[in-house]
């Protein structure tokens, strides 16, 4: 697969996180009620990724990658955001799927779906749901979503900051996917 | 699962990702090389199988052969277009597509297709898959009028 086609597919695949955050912004109440299912869906996406890999690639290679992924998660599970770990794995494995067009198509869809839930989850983690009527916690008449005053080193995150961080993550993982592809192509030409 | 963890990249995470990329790149190079070799070798094997069956010296029992001792046998050549492409392919055990055609090179080095004549006045550019294009607007089994 040529680099331009690959980059375009990576753009589409990783854009799910932006779509997810936009959907969460549009329907925040609904997202907060179902946010407990998002990690399960993310895990299912990862399982589906390896299911596609097992269908189109040699068993031993995919098994080695599965062990590597498991080790990667095991090492950093308690120290790093699970979305970052998931996206790192997806971005690094994405070039491998470009060897088989059908597999690449399926993985693009899976990654996009994964991104939608990741983006929504990210948005949810940085916002608080509107409180019920009569609650003492909220004094505002507007029952729409409040942005959490997430104190991190004295800074408060606004909607714009949340979106800019999402776009930064999107750009970063797109870059990671492209770097992974370029390194793979270099290795291929070195061996040939 | 919603427990908040760090969101910054530590040095060991960067190293782990780099190692992951290197391993995947090695697998990528291995698989890409394997696909290229398999594809090219397979095509060569198929081409050899087809050309062998067309030479009566090498395959006496082949109903498709029309070359004997370096000479084209006109009667047998005329029978070739009568066979269906699928029957030829299944008899030869070929999975991919192929096209059998003849060309002559004139004094200017230009290749010209020599059509297959089925003996009834119908002339075909070649015998094989209609997906093949021998030249612009001329498919493998194109019938000349």
Keywords:
heterodimer; A: 192 residues; 2% strand; B: 145 residues; alpha+beta; 3-stranded antiparallel beta sheet; 10 strands; 20% strand
Shape descriptor of chain A: globular
Number of helices of chain B: 3
**Basic shape of chain B:** elongated
Structural class by SSE content of chain B: alpha+beta
Largest interchain contact: A-B, 40 and 27 residues
Helicity range of chain B: 40-55%
Determine the N-to-C terminus distance of chain A. Answer: 17 Å
Report the structural category of chain A.
Answer: mainly alpha
Q: How many strand elements of chain B? A: 10
Order of helices and strands of chain A: HHHHHHHEEH
Strand order of the largest sheet of chain A: 1-2
The oligomerization state is heterodimer
Strand content of chain A: under 5%
Proportion of beta-strand residues of chain B: 15-25%
Please write the string of helix (H) and strand (E) elements of chain B.
Answer: HEEHHEEEEEEEE
Could you describe the 3D structure shown?
Chain A has one domain (3-128, 146-191). Chain A has 8 helices and 2 strands. Chain A has helices at residues 3-14, 16-26, 28-34, 38-56, 59-76, 82-97, 101-125, 159-191, and strands at 127-128, 146-147. In chain A, strands 1-2 form a two-stranded antiparallel sheet. The radius of gyration of chain A is 19 Å and the shape is globular. Chain A starts with a helix and ends with a helix. Chain B has 145 residues and is of the alpha+beta class. Chain B has helices at residues 11-54, 74-79, 85-92; strands at residues 67-68, 71-72, 99-105, 111-114, 116-117, 123-124, 126-128, 133-135, 138-139, 143-144. In chain B, strands 4-3-7 form a 3-stranded antiparallel β-sheet, with no helix packed on it. A 3-stranded antiparallel β-sheet of chain B has the order 5-6-10, with no helix packed on it. A two-stranded antiparallel sheet of chain B has the order 1-2. The chains are: A mainly alpha (192), B alpha+beta (145). At the A-B interface, helix 5, helix 6 and helix 8 of A face helix 1 of B.
